Amino acid sequence: TSSGVFLLQMGWGDLGAFGEPSKETPNLDQMAAEGMLFLDFYTASPLCSPSRAALLTGRLPVRNGFYTTNGHARNAYTPQDIVGGIPDSELLLPELLKKAGYTNKIIGKWHLGHRPQFHPLRHGFDEWFGSPNCHFGPYDSTERPNIPVYRDWEMVGRYYEDFKIDLKTGEANLTQLYLQEALDFISKQQASQQPFFLYWAIDATHAPVYASKQFLGTSQRGLYGDAVREIDDSVGKILKHLQQLGISENTFVFFTSDNGAALISAPRQGGSNGPFLCGKQTTFEGGMREPAIAWWPGHIPAGGVSHQLGSVMDLFSTSLSLAGLQPPSDRQIDGIDLLPVILQGKLIDRPIFYYRGNELMALRAGLYKAHYWTWSNSWEEHSKGIDFCPGQSVAGVTTHTQEEHTHLPLLFHLGRDPGEKYPISFASEEYQRALEHISGLVQQHKATLVPGQPQLNVCDQAVMNWSPPGCEKLGKCLKAPESDPKKCSWPH
Amino acid sequence: TSSGVFLLQMGWGDLGAFGEPSKETPNLDQMAAEGMLFLDFYTASPLCSPSRAALLTGRLPVRNGFYTTNGHARNAYTPQDIVGGIPDSELLLPELLKKAGYTNKIIGKWHLGHRPQFHPLRHGFDEWFGSPNCHFGPYDSTERPNIPVYRDWEMVGRYYEDFKIDLKTGEANLTQLYLQEALDFISKQQASQQPFFLYWAIDATHAPVYASKQFLGTSQRGLYGDAVREIDDSVGKILKHLQQLGISENTFVFFTSDNGAALISAPRQGGSNGPFLCGKQTTFEGGMREPAIAWWPGHIPAGGVSHQLGSVMDLFSTSLSLAGLQPPSDRQIDGIDLLPVILQGKLIDRPIFYYRGNELMALRAGLYKAHYWTWSNSWEEHSKGIDFCPGQSVAGVTTHTQEEHTHLPLLFHLGRDPGEKYPISFASEEYQRALEHISGLVQQHKATLVPGQPQLNVCDQAVMNWSPPGCEKLGKCLKAPESDPKKCSWPH
What we know:
The structure is a homodimer. By secondary structure, the first copy, chain A, is α/β, with parallel strands linked by helices. Chain A folds into 2 domains: 2-349, Alkaline Phosphatase, subunit A, CATH 3.40.720; 355-448, Arylsulfatase, C-terminal domain (2-Layer Sandwich), CATH 3.30.1120.10. Chain A is built from 12 helices and 21 strands. In chain A, strand 6 (148-151) and strand 7 form a beta hairpin. The radius of gyration of chain A is 21 Å and the shape is globular. The two termini of chain A are 40 Å apart. The A-B interface holds A 13, 16, 18-23, 37, 39-40, 219-222, 224-225, 266-268, 272, 274-275, 277, 305, 307, 367, 390-394, 413-419, 421-422 and B 13, 16, 18-23, 37, 39-40, 219-222, 224-225, 266-268, 272, 274-275, 277, 305, 307, 367, 390-394, 413-419, 421-422. Chains A, B: Keywords: Calcium, Disulfide bond, Glycoprotein, Hydrolase, Lysosome, Metal-binding, Signal. Chains A, B: It holds the Pfam family Sulfatase_C.
């Protein structure tokens, strides 16, 4: 059975099936109607790189090294001056799937490090079309080079130079390129009768948001909605392609997101987290609860809904299970195999960990969530207009200083209070009962945790994408400055 | 064609189909899947009585008299010391439907006045089982009598005495009684082959929230969710009954709500307005945008979605149209006939008016909404812990003083900003263009408006439900105090 994972930066509330009022995602809604909707599905970090590392390793970022110790509880990722990346010691899903004869392709943003040793084709992927970092820019080639776009081992151009993004109009045809790549890859695999793993990690909904001309101005929601509509259309075309090739019943497909909607970019460039609190960068529900749909015609009963507490890390274990493989036994794996949930409707008891960098901020068990630390962002950043919770403010919860609650965690019941507005009284029996259970889980987790070497501590202008492999052929090699490694600055 | 209207106090975000994360409304979701979902549907007031008066008259409360002039922009309703009620001069939907041979029944809360002249059977209904006021209580029979429950002309008991509601556990079997009434009425009408109008206006989700024993503790959402589940189950049973009797294709059914979820009662007794701002009592989207589903098998295409700006007042005009009747031509009717929308997918250009008492607070045209006044509630009320926007605060928008913006209205684009968080810049071309259009609509509305006599100004302890008709037979007549009419106090 082949596997496909759509990983996008979209908020829980961006899909019609999840209550977006414009209801402009007919293909994703159809995917949900034909498959299974996960309502309690989480990413592993409120930021992109650590979530992606967790998805591909089945392990929490604090284990696989995708975190920082430069400051307490700071989100970190892989900008182009990052020195670190995915360690060789980590076993990635595509590396393991190779043993079962899979061909693995990544389309879109890799984000696990851009230096040669971190290249996706060194970590199990057979093919790549996309970029190592976010499509930020345009840059000037002096202070900062534009991000390269790779085909397999070599760059084939750079964003803004060879792959245009019009920041004024939001026009870019990248999603169409990425769609065509997916369709071609699937056709090729079907023709060769080889199982495949396709990781479609495109970034049209990440600021600077873009859409193709044919989608610009078509959404009620503005540019962000145009991008969502194009992604929705693309997902529909990929699923239809699988059906037309007659391989949909042999292909497990999962749609989800790497973090909550970036409310700092709203309303033009950011999405919606529905009824949840705050967004990307925070460990409130808006930062980490994700839209999620499993689709596998003939296997998953149509119209299913699951309240299984799920995680992007489960896609690691589930994809291995589909390939008849076991997860590695020499290390802690945080993902679980969701097949019993999906195929037999089981519910597996497991907690959800909400980390920000090196700190366990919160834990969810059942319908209860306990916050051990609360923080939105600092007063300093907030005073610059950076707001992760625009229009929302819950006293003592969306704090602008790092507040420790380890002795008396804030407890919420996410069933009757999905918006995390009403902490349960410390004096209540309910608090005592729920917290006793959760405290046990936290203790157990902390007692056995072996943190990985933090990969996101050091930044250096010299490691930026000055001269990626292949730059000579294109005449696009740039001169790197002297190496000057520094601690990266992670304000959030 | 018969008509059924389910009118409930539920928030936009309370249904699975509208994104409630627990997704516990399978029957309503199924109703939506078989019918048409309205995503931009509004009530006529952020409070119950005026909305109900508007639904049944097809006219804004400021026209039909369901408002107050005791204070500026105050919400008013019909507590049991209210002197006023629905004026005889108003023509109610059931009065008109009678001309086409309909039998009309109201089940549940009437709320258009409880003195004899306002009795629903004097205003077109043929049958009634329910109460004239909210099921507040229990009262002591001295300061305040418990609310009576009527069958047709006479009371058959009182809440808390003969119709139990356990405020501690939330247990009450009232929804089951109201369900059985509906099933029996439909059976009777089917047997007699008479067209009917059924107005099922039950109040289990209005604080104090209640549910039957079999539903208590079954929801992830606590007591409120239990009540929602029972209502969902009941709606499913009523629709199934229509199908089993073979009359579903001759019965137009509409589900909606009279105001947004009462966030002051959350989390135990209040619902969800999804991504919208604030709740009941306010003219933000959370106060007035409602869940809405039209169902009419064989006529409405399954799975339809409409962005028609709709109103509860449209149920008046639509029901008349279904009966082959014309709306009265001697008065302004604010409702429109939705049949072209529902059957042919048309979109009719019309504004939505957001009133609070005697003041037009805001107007929506297309995707733009202009606020002429902003107010959540007063600092005085807020300081008592009454919060209509818990956890939400948008500077200059969710104001605690009545802020006038008539010269420079706050403008929002509800497509990219459904949460009303980002006022559009006054200096922008978009602002100028949208506002020019909206100003014209406001001017036109104000120039032709003939306000009705305000019915909700005077309160008097003597008019409470001391001795409703039928009390003698039950030995339940109470002695009224001396009449002492006063201006009602409307703090919000």
